[in-house]
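Go through this fold for my students:
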Amino acid sequence: MTAIPGAGRIPPVVGFVLLLLGLAVMSAPSGVAAANFNNEVDITWGEGRAKIDGQGLVLTLSLDKASGSGFRSKNQYMYGKIEMKLKLVAGNSAGTVTTFYLSSLGSTHDEIDFEFLGNASGDPYVLHTNVFTQGKGGREQQFYLWFDPTKDFHTYSILWNPESIIFTVDGTPIRQFKNLGSSGIPYPKDQPMWVYGSLWDAEEWATRGGLVKTDWSQAPFVASYSNYTAQACVWSGPSSSSCSKNPSANPWLVESLDNSGQERIKWVQKNYMVYNYCSDAKRFPQGFPPECSLNS
């Protein structure tokens, strides 16, 4: 994990750019009904700290000094568009990490990460993204958000198809990782993944590189998840998939960024990115990883 840059402030938002690029626009309704958590996930750890409401529509995770908590989807997926609304830990959340990610298992696993690194009161959350292929990560990009993620639910989406991985916040793309297998760059394409969520303590590194520790007097820390949708290929074996190969039946399989999306992602990265492994010359004195120039 690369240390987070020193504390800073979110750069001012330029009104006419927001108007042009639509960064303030929430994601359009997808027409996909939110899943019932009781039917879609298993609470995997936390000894009662993870709870699903009576209707199955909201799942809360809590963290205290004894333990955090987490869940995993019942299904594995081989490509998909996975969305979740999250409301993050409010107040002094320093040292805590709230996650929403996809992952397979084993030492050569693939993984696609949203991790929300807690903050001292008054400082912005850091949204940490990463992509692992064949057990290798180290592709960190970190962002501030243009809203307070503790005041209300916001939508976080991972689109994973044969062409690319796109990370989206409230309908705004913030990062793309392309399938560059033809250039010899590994891409998550051979391993089905589960959907995970967790809330845990990482005070050794999470906030300002570990300088700010968890204040346990603020516990229990609580994060909430809702509106879980998985437009995805359910995997049940090497020769079995729930997906039609017809793109009209699963349009997300061929979904990509249009010109407007490319401009929006550039705007976010210019104004809200606080760390990019592809710009860390000290970390890569012999040259940046090959995907850095090809993913731009």
In short: Confidence is low (pLDDT under 50) at residues 1-30.
